[in-house]
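Cross-check.
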Amino acid sequence: MIVAFSVAPSGTGRADGSVSDAVAAAVKIVRDSGLPHRTSAMFTELEGTTWDECFDVVKRATEAVLPFGSRVSLVLKADIRPGYEGQIDSKLGRLEAAIEKQDDQAHS
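Predicted model, tokenized:
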């Protein structure tokens, strides 16, 4: 299972609207979980083998953001594929291979 999520506070009271401190607290939870993960400018992805394993991390990351504002927004998407592991990297590998194949066909 791969879970992509974004968690951020609102009502922070900061003039610049930055949520980087809150996001850092959430990402630390993900990193400390030991699960395969990656963070981009918009989402954090993590991979686990069970719902409980993944959603425990998402819950704790969300709770880590609570002190930074008056409310918290959570956006979540999951790819549930029982019996498969290592998909956080494999999916990207298949995508890159497909792009390369299309490029090769276009230049043939």
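The mean pLDDT is 94. The helical segments are 20-33, 51-65, 87-106. Passed to J.P. for a second look.
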